Amino acid sequence: MSVSTDFENELYAAADAKTAWYDNCALPKLVDEYRNYRAVFNTVLSMLLKKGFIQPDPYKLDKKLTEITVPDESEFKDGDRAAVLGLRLSEYESSLEFLCNYFKFSVENLTMDRIKKLIQLNNYISWNSLMSTTAKQNSRVLGEIFTSIKMGSDSLSVGVLNDSTNFISKSLARINTILKDVTDFKRELYKIKVRKEVLNGKNFAAERSSLTSENGVHIIKEHFLSAMGKQPFYTELIEEIVHEETSPDKEDKRQAVLNKLRIKEQETEQKRPKINTKQLLLTSCQLFSALAPQYTLIAPKIEENHHLLQSEYRGLWAKLKTAFRKAFNIPEKPIEYKLKVNDAFTHTAKTQSIDYSSFMDNLLKRSRLYASFGIKQSVNIQKIENMEEHAIFEYVQRQLSECNILQMTLEGFDEFFKTAVHAENRNKIKGIQIELTSVKNTLIKINQRKAEYSAYMSEQTQMEKLGIQHV
After folding, report:
1. What is the span of the domain harbouring residue 31?
2. Are the C-beta atoms of 70 and 124 separated by less than 8 Å?
3. Can you tell me the distance from the alpha carbon of 306 to that of 292, in angstroms, rounded to the nearest whole number?
4. In a domain, 66, yes or no
5. How confident is the model over 120-169, as pLDDT tens digits?
């Protein structure tokens, strides 16, 4: 085994530091970008489903991804577009969910093949050119649907659509920039691996001193298979190594590589940056937008279960009472359900009477409110941005508390309907556990952001008491 040169030792140290920076700084930001992108995409997806432009995917809950997957892009018949586009957009959303919740974003795990898949996934929909002349049929049909919405009278939907596509385009640009940087870094890591395994391998020591710009690639290739196994041989990158070893201006080339690996001052930040605490709270508010599509999926399932249960009690006597109330203009009595609700905080169970109509109104209103949180220029977000910081914190706390209560109630409904209907109808009950799990994960993330804010403010208060000025 030959001894590494001073340049190589410096190169390896720089690569290790850059890897740590990517894993701890840049790639967590990439995950956040994907989560924000997914939240806004879900807002668009919910709108298209609600307006009937696409059909829901009946098999969505049965699909489990274990790797980055790009949905089908093949041509389809125009008459099938509602079903096919609905299926493909559902699969696309599942791919985003996999990235946001299950995929490990690290330099080691982001292989070149996976980066290529990510870029394909990012370009699956041509958000910047949703027109009738777009080559990809998925994007072309989506553009036709968007045009139809914009020509309609629903100004709220038009505004949401414009804000969403604008946000998505900018978010994907940031995502692709990070992926390009990671790709460049992976190229350098490949070259480093070749240096370690081939140039510094025990069988290469005698030939290293005889490398020239003419024979370098050939000599390295002779030793490549035995040292690198099934790794691909990238001639372009091998040529760069040869130039760094034999070129008359090799010192300049080596310095260029080190400069490329060096962490810039704005990346490393010697001093701890002052946190924009208000922005931290606003980000917490925006995370609520991820709840909207889940509540939108839950509501019709609850409604269907409700109607199924009520149909079992619609006998002759019930119909006579309904007719009597209508004849004498007597309002219907509100339907109440007695649910067993498990309190996750006290670990106790209690029975609650829930007014069904009021509950559903609250669920749908909350879904619409949170959907608007995903749009930066929405009226609701603007109102929150104009609030004092302490008021925003109290608002986040209140919303979290209400969402946790709603979560427990929804879990109570899920259990109630499964046992309340007749045995022969139980297979017709729609379960909501998958959606509730997604809601729970989102609430955990919001609570983490709130905890970060509280911890930072507590630390600042303590430092002020000690007379320390934070910089």
Report:
1. 6-190
2. yes
3. 21
4. yes
5. 999 999 998 888 778 889 999 999 999 999 888 888 788 888 888 888 99
